[in-house]
Amino acid sequence: MASPLFTLFSGPAGSRRSHAADGAPAGAHWLFGRNRLDIDSHQLIRDDYRAQLDERAFAVLGCLLRHAEQVVPRSTLVAEAWPGVEHVNDSAVSKTMRRLRIALGSEAGRTLSTVYGVGYRLTTPAVLVPAGATLPGNGAATSGTPVQAAARGQRAPAPPGSGHVTPNISADATGAPEHAGHARRHRLVVIVVLLLSALLAAWLLLAPVAR
After folding, report:
1. Which residue in 40, 60, 48, 202 sits closest to 129, CA to CA?
2. 144-177 exposure pattern, b = at least 16 Cβ within 10 A, e = fewer
3. Strand partners, 44
4. Cβ(70)–Cβ(121) below 8 Å
5. Residue 127 belongs to what H/E stretch?
6. CA 66/CA 46 separation, integer angstroms
7. What is the pLDDT of residues 158-184, one digit of tens each?
8. What is the C-alpha to C-alpha distance for residues 120 and 114, in angstroms, rounded to an integer?
């Protein structure tokens, strides 16, 4: 079944260049939360959902992605998403943010927050994946995706439903032999204590008879 595709107020015909993509390699993707932003096509992708962003909404999202998890002042947002425009009124920014929230759908409340009187904040980590890189699962970024885990120098877990369990190479796992040795010593101590207790109980029972 074809994936639903929503077009949100597309920009001028033939205009595909966005300031959010300046300096980004062709074919790259932004991953954040459960979402993937295709820089070339301007599509926001989540599972089977696709939203076509207009140029301005794409530029605003690009600015927020570059400053992910930081509060972006409205002045910074305007400077990066409306470069060269002398005056951008508040309603233009608010309308663009509304279109962006529509594209994010149910994820908007968890992903994009308004810091009243200051600006906006993308609440999830974001990573720029170069062209040709293998995208994890459905292309969404979570705290355990291979791309983010590799950036932290960790082994990433297998995507859900893949049928493959990735060994968890952690400090606990590498210390397993040491833990097993402690367990054996503990069992030995318990056995010795029980034997001594039994001998003491037998001596107490037999001592009056001996006298």
Report:
1. 40
2. ebbbbeeeeeeeebebeeeeeeeeeeeeeeeeee
3. 37, 51
4. yes
5. strand 126-129
6. 19
7. 444 444 444 443 444 444 455 566 677
8. 5
